[in-house]
Design brief:
4-stranded antiparallel β-sheet, 11 strands, 43% helix
């Protein structure tokens, strides 16, 4: 089987010649990406090049409000603070301005969102004052990526989720609080953005994009930030609408969702997940891989579940045993892709991390 055939078969719970190995974030096929990595990445890139299968993300986009309205404009002020660059963005809407602030590190650290556009109920009205003009992007770059990738893997088209859009507007704290105190507002925004998400999805389908669509952001209102009922109201219900449309078109859905999923595992099935990543065991999640395989392994492809922190820091022999155990659990019956929970996130990889990445790939390949 080619990598593409193997990945598609795994998603569909069909027989494969061997389970895929998808090393998230190691873009061995991307010459520009490889050229800009530190030399420490070299052995990892080569190991994944030899044994890895590819999931390449491509986004339909939509912007912060999922509208192409010319009445939505932004201005940005940039302030150099040494270790950080402060970006102050003002969103100009017909009903008034909203401001967000983000810090970007000059030393390779993760960025920090300091302030979100929606802080008050008045800001919600500003968001909704922007006229809706469907977002219809040029999809030529999708087909270019798909052709360039060839049989080495699949291009997954990302579709914006309502909860992802809402989270980007108000942040974790306000979203969690308003899901209790202002439920009608979250429902109102969800209703608006699910229709816009469906319009974007339908545009992609009309252009021939597919057959794999991906969503991420379900985790933004997963336990413990909200309870199962709230997750079902604000994530599952609109997610079902997207999943149904994807499946009606004969396509597949990939969901990436970190954290605790034990109480909402069936919700991912309801939303039409064909593949679920990363299935995190305690302490970062609450779903042991063997339990997930027992409960839903015959209904959804499980992609995971080697913790990125373990790849960075475990003694290599310890990591190898975890990889073996995951493969022994996941491979029987199919519907399994070995994958770390996240991408490499440091500019330089330590010798330990390099050994672990290479051992992870080679151990999995030895079990074919």
């Amino acid at each position: 089987m080619t990598s593409r055939e193997r990945m598609m078969a795994a998603f569909r719970l069909e027989p494969v010649d061997h389970f895929p190995i998808q090393i998230r974030g190691v873009r061995f096929w991307d010459d520009d990406w490889c050229a800009t990595r530190d030399a420490s990445y070299g052995p990892v890139i080569e190991a994944v090049r030899e044994h890895g299968d590819i999931e390449l993300g491509w986004g339909l986009g939509g912007g912060m409000l999922l509208t192409a309205s010319p009445e939505l404009t932004t201005t940005t002020e940039t302030i150099d603070e040494g270790d950080w660059i402060r970006h102050i963005t003002t969103i100009h809407a017909p009903a008034g301005d909203m401001t967000s602030v983000r810090l970007n590190s000059t030393r390779g650290l993760p960025g920090l969102a300091m302030e979100f556009p929606v802080k008050t109920l008045e800001d919600v009205e500003k968001v909704l004052s922007v006229p809706y003009v469907p977002h219809q992007p040029d999809c030529a770059s999708f087909f270019a990526a798909d052709e360039a990738l060839g049989d080495r893997g699949i291009v997954m088209c990302s579709v914006p989720l309502p909860i992802t859009t809402i989270h980007a507007l108000m942040g974790t704290d306000t979203l969690a609080i308003w899901s209790i105190t202002e439920r009608d507002v979250i429902h109102r925004l969800t209703d608006v953005f699910v229709q816009r998400s469906l319009d974007i999805l339908n545009w992609g389908l009309s252009q021939g994009v597919g057959p794999v669509f991906s969503t991420l952001g379900e985790e933004y209102l997963a336990p413990p930030l909200a309870g199962p009922r709230d997750f079902h109201d604000f994530v599952t219900t609109p997610g079902i609408a997207l999943g149904n449309r994807i499946h009606e078109a004969g396509c597949l859905r990939h969901i990436h969702s970190h954290g605790s999923i034990a109480a909402i595992l069936e919700d991912y099935i309801e939303m039409g997940a064909d593949c679920l990543h990363p299935i995190e065991a305690p302490p970062l999640g609450d779903m042991p891989f063997d339990e997930a395989k027992r409960l839903v392994g015959d209904r959804v492809c499980l992609e995971g579940n080697i913790q990125i922190g373990d790849v960075y820091h475990d003694p290599t022999d310890v990591l190898v045993e975890k990889v073996k155990r995951t493969c022994e659990i996941g491979a029987p019956g199919g519907g399994f892709i070995l994958c770390p929970t996240a991408s490499p996130h440091t500019a330089v990889l330590t010798d330990q991390t390099v050994r672990n990445y290479v051992a992870m790939v080679e151990t999995a390949a030895s079990m074919w």
